[in-house]
Amino acid sequence: MNNKFSKEIIHRIFEETKEKTEVKNIGNVVYLNGNVSSYDQALRAGFIAASFSKLRGVVSNLHYPSEKKIIFPEKVSDRLNGREFDVVIVGAGVIGAAIARELSKFNLSIAVLERHSDIGVDQTAHNNGMIHPAFLTKHGTLKWEMNYKGNAMFDKVTAELDVPFKRIGTLIVAENLKEELMLFALNGLVKWHRDPSPKVLNREELDKVEPGLAPHIKKGLLVWNTGIISPFELTIAYMENAISNGVKLFLETSVNGVYTENSFVKAVETTQGTIKTHCLINAAGLYADKIAEFAGDRFFTIHPRRGATIIFDKTYQPMKTVLGSFSMRENRNPHSKGGGFIPTIDGNLQLGPTACEVEDREDTATSFGDINELLDKFAPILSRLKPEYPEASKDKIITYFAGARAATFKEDFIIEPSQKIKGLIHVAGIQSPGLAAAPAIAERVYEIVRNEVNPDIKNEFNPVRKRFKLFSEMDGSEITERTQKDSQYGHIICRCEHVSEKEIVNVLHDDIPVESVDAIKRRTRAGMGRCQGGFCLPRVMAIIEREKGLNKERITKNGGKSFILDGKTKRGEK
Amino acid sequence: MKADVTVIGGGPGGLVSALFAKRNGAKKVLILEREDELGGILKQCIHNGFGLELFKKDLTGPEYAERLIDDINKVGVDYMLDTMAIHLSNDRTITAVNSKYGVFNIESKSIVLAMGCRERARGNIVIPGTRPAGIYTAGVAQRFINIDGYLPGKEVVILGSGDIGLIMARRLTLEGAKVKGVYEIMDHPGGLKRNIVQCLNDFDIPLYLSHTVIEIKGKDRVTGVVVAKVDSKMQPIEGTEEFIKCDTLLLSVGLIPENELSKEANIEISSNTKGPVMTETMETTVPGIFSSGNVSVVFDLVDYVAETGVIAGKNAAEFAKEKNENKKFINILPGKNVGILFPHRYSYRDDLILFLRAGKWIEKPVSIKIKPLNMKMRRFYARPNEMIRIKILQDKLLSAKGDITVSIKEVEG
Ligand SMILES: Cc1cc2nc3c(=O)[nH]c(=O)nc-3n(C[C@H](O)[C@H](O)[C@H](O)COP(=O)(O)OP(=O)(O)OC[C@H]3O[C@@H](n4cnc5c(N)ncnc54)[C@H](O)[C@@H]3O)c2cc1C
Ligand SMILES: Cc1cc2nc3c(=O)[nH]c(=O)nc-3n(C[C@H](O)[C@H](O)[C@H](O)COP(=O)(O)OP(=O)(O)OC[C@H]3O[C@@H](n4cnc5c(N)ncnc54)[C@H](O)[C@@H]3O)c2cc1C
To answer: How far is the CA of B409 from the CAs of A431, A486, B400, in angstroms?
Structure first.
């Protein structure tokens, strides 16, 4: 039977790709072995295998010419040697951070290990900050369940953690009579996906939520629970709250191996030494399959899917909701939540993301192709707005970026204790809508840990975190009052975004120990404005030097070896 | 706080404006400067070439600034350093912030804008690729080297042939860095001829016209860029891509007048100069708010900046004494082959100093025509990288009716 099933997969792969592969099926996990002609072919084989239902996972061991080896960072110290924690979480993306905060409700010692010099800088920092409604995810999948549950939790979480969050809604507009009828069917579909009380609106009601609609639009469906948030700020908030509840965070600490004994987790090997633990949570995003492999429990493969996003200047604000139409829905990429124009909580409109399979997990480069693709693909949505609205042209772009999604071939989330290794919990394949799902995922992991470890509940858990108030959020008298006490409040460092010295100093002394220019930029917006850091970069560096005692030559843009300067000038040497 | 004339920005434009406001009888003249020193961009321009017109001397930037600072101290201009103007309203109230007072207001009888300009950055010109360390505007690199005493890199590619980029090519070479080339998307250089010769040719640094950077490579730090030739529509030509190894990419792709405050005060901004719409008296469209230097239009010589400061300072002082809201004016319009043209209006109160740039590169004799004055001026060529200055006396203009149009015509022979 097993054999027959494997043969069927081999046959299908050969029929569709002309590639000869070997297939092994062990406990409903399919392992693809052999050599194929390219990475694309390996991908196709993976997807074909995954299309067979009832599989737990697909692992691709397919080799191809010019295959790139994944290199893990080298060991830098032994400073964590011998440390022991009840729980070790690998990865400080939004998922690792949310889990850390949730588990800090238990009486457990918890460490979060992050390979980068800052948290939330992989998938999390590159996403669109949309708290998706659930109707665009496939009904019945784990993704869908986490999506609708997570979405509903955002009001409470953001209130506790003091993170700006706004429900702006998704608005699907009807452009003719037929589409107006379709709205009612869509309404049913949305409800079936458990998005709460969607509403068909008439023109008058439409004008209230989206004032710029074109005259030919008479009706639309508002799915109001779509929200926007800064994914990075949410991650910071989760982590700060976790730390204040006792969690330890270790940056620049990459997990390069897992020690097990008799199928029990014993310790992790890191670039800063070996850390003992009996409970390992794999929230490593793009490298979750590698962590699974280290532990001897590889049952899925991550294939990165890059998405690029464009950010427009703040003066370009044609819409208030996430706008969709029926014709847009038809040419959706099957593996993307659709995308389009998405307002951000900071007030810039963004356009994205694209969806493109890439081999390199670190591939976050953008191309002209991305920018043109986005403008070509989504510009038509603007025809649903009043004709006098200016078009989304290139001169309104202030920046653009790309990030890779951690997709598996099954394309669903994996949130479960390992079937092989006691003490290992996988939280993997968390691609979009992972941000929207984060609170629900953390809660699910809480339940798993409770069952597996059975820990005590902490009495003194504090769910509240207060954010640092920004200069740009204060009125004049408040700034004056604060300046009298501490002159740094009145000293502007970033002229475009009005960031004061105080905010920058505050970041440098936060619980999350960062010291790169980008870490400051992500937290304060210093350098994100019109001049893109032209004014504040040397000034921010001077503050880092002063506050951290770090020589300017050692200051990095974004951790690692991203040094900003390269030696002194002849005069500077003297 | 109250003042007769408040000048926002203490660069050469602002310093000269304040000096001349004082010299023309304004009592309290106040400069607001967000940096901890006066002098503006001049402080980091340690090369010479300044002051040839105004002081008849070849000075470095800091020397030039020093002279102006001495002068304003002598006449008794007030200034507040580390003080940033954050709002401006059209009733001439400025909101500023510093670390001494916090946020405070200044009510001023008249105001001179002198905020200078900023450099265009990567996002404004859309270069795809990764986002590593090692990408700076030429001005930031200039500051690192000349003020902080550090090198931004050792193997440098420069995109854009603006003057600051050219000057940095020389500076980096003198500091022992290797400048691999200057790539310019247009078919002509952006900077002054004298800078091409003195900063590139004298150091054997190649200039590639009709070329651009189409991709940036490198993860932590820049490891190289891909350059390509462009066609007449400035689109990269397939097959001409070339990888250039480097650790630094400097951008010298233009300056933008810094007019965020002006926009807040509802001052009309010209799409031609990207600065306020102005008259020959340097007044903007909001009465009592004047403008000088690079916030008005990007000048290529500091002496021109100073010249606008002289006029703005004088007229701001006069406005502070007797509000003169003259509404009568004619427009000054760019005609054929004229790109940038400044100022935009003539209000019959003073001589008119026109600044213009050719709209295209004409490498043969031309004639500049000013209608309806029947003025014609011959030149050997018209190059967009060199600003043309023309002074017209008030006498000649008093009878002018209807709009003034300036055009450039190729002449045969
Ligand atoms: C372009 C794009 C747009 C998106 N838009 C949305 C959206 O609008 N809404 C939404 O809900 N979702 C969106 N998503 C999905 C969302 O970003 C992810 O689901 C979410 O960020 C996943 O978080 P994570 O913590 O699992 O992963 P990550 O943020 O990738 O975190 C994993 C962390 O693990 C660390 N790590 C990896 N390996 C190791 C190791 N060996 N040792 C130590 N640390 C390690 C990494 O450095 C990283 O910080 C988008 C994704 C992309 C790419
Ligand atoms: C990086 C760079 C390098 C240059 N190099 C040269 C060169 O080598 N040779 C040359 O001839 N020209 C050069 N220029 C052009 C130069 O700008 C002008 O020649 C001249 O300095 C312009 O004088 P300015 O007073 O108009 O502006 P600036 O010199 O720029 O002065 C403006 C001043 O206003 C201040 N300011 C701005 N906004 C505010 C606010 N809101 N509140 C308080 N203060 C404010 C600024 O801090 C600054 O000090 C350069 C320009 C730049 C941007």
So the answer is: 61, 62, 22
B355 - beta bridge partners? B342, B389
- What strand order describes the sheet that includes B338-342? B338-342, B352-358, B388-392
Cβ of A254 below 6 Å from ligand 1 = yes
Structure confidence at residue A328 (pLDDT): 63
ipTM of the complex: 0.92
- Over range B238-260, report the average pLDDT: 95
Q: How far is A400 from chain B (nearest CA, A)?
A: 7
Identify all chain B residues contacting A371, using CB atoms and an 8 Å cutoff. 126, 128
pLDDT recorded at residue B73: 97
Given a cut of 80, whether residue A90 has pLDDT beyond it is: yes
CATH code for the domain of B377: 2.60.40
Instruction: Give the tokens for residue B173.
Output: 């070479």
User: Could you tell me the CA-to-CA distances from A521 to A72, A493, A559, B5, B291 in Å, in that order?
Assistant: 27, 12, 13, 36, 32
- List, in sequence order, every residue forming a beta bridge with A406; answer none if it has no partner: A304
Considering only the beta carbons, identify the residue of B126, B143, B214 that sits closest to A397: B126
Helix residue spans in A335-456 (DSSP H): 368-378, 434-453
8 A C-beta contact, residue A339 and residue A128? yes
Last residue of a domain, one of B232, B253, B274: B253
Are A345 and A484 found together in one domain?
no
Kindly list the residues from chain A whose CB atom is less than 8 angstroms away from the CB atom of residue B128: 365-368, 370-371, 400
In DSSP terms, which residues pair with B97 in a beta bridge? B84, B103
CB pairs under 8 A between A and B: 151
A312 inside 8 A of chain B by CB: no
Q: Are A537 and B131 in contact (CB < 8 Å)?
A: no
Residues B129 and B217 in one domain: yes
For residue A550, the enclosing domain spans: 471-573
Model confidence pLDDT, tens digit, residues B28-56: 999 999 999 999 999 988 888 888 877 88
Residue A270's identity, in one-letter code, is: T
Q: Give the span between the Cα atoms of B341 and B357, in whole angstroms.
A: 7
Q: Which ligand sits closest to the CA of A538?
A: 2
pLDDT category, A314, cuts 50, 70, 90?
confident
Tell the residue number behind the tokens 């304060």, with chain if given: A524
Count Cβ neighbours within 10 Å for each residue of A75-106 and write b for 16 or more, e otherwise.
eeeeebeebebbbbbbbbbbbbbbbbbbbbbb
Minimum Cα–Cα distance from A364: chain B residue: B130
CB-based contact A252:A271 (threshold 8 Å):
yes
Domain with B308, as residue range(s), is 1-119+255-325
**pLDDT tens readout for residues A337-362:** 567 899 999 889 999 999 999 999 98
The predicted-structure confidence for B97-111, as pLDDT tens digits, reads as follows 999 999 999 999 999
Instruction: List b or e across A38-73, with b for residues whose CB sees 16 or more CB atoms inside 10 angstroms.
Output: bbebbbbbbbbbbeeeebebbbbebebeeeeeeeee
| A132 in active site | yes
pLDDT score of A369? 86
Q: Are strands A499-500 and A492-494 parallel, antiparallel or unpaired?
A: antiparallel
pTM of the model: 0.90
Query: Which of B3, B57, B139, B256 has its CA nearest to residue A538?
Result: B139
**Do residues A296 and A306 both lie within one domain?**
no
One domain, residues A485 and A525: yes
| Half-sphere exposure for B34 (CA within 13 Å, toward CB) | 24
- Residue numbers in A near B121 (CB within 8 A): 530-534
How many domains does chain A fold into?
Answer: 5
Q: What is the pLDDT of residue B52?
A: 80
Judgement on whether residues B56 and B146 belong to the same structural domain of the protein: no
CA distance A341 to A356: 18
Distance in angstroms (rounded) separating the CA atoms of residues B387 and B405: 17
Shortest Cα–Cα distance, A480 to chain B (Å): 4
* pLDDT exceeds cutoff 60 at A483: yes
Same domain, B144 and B247: yes
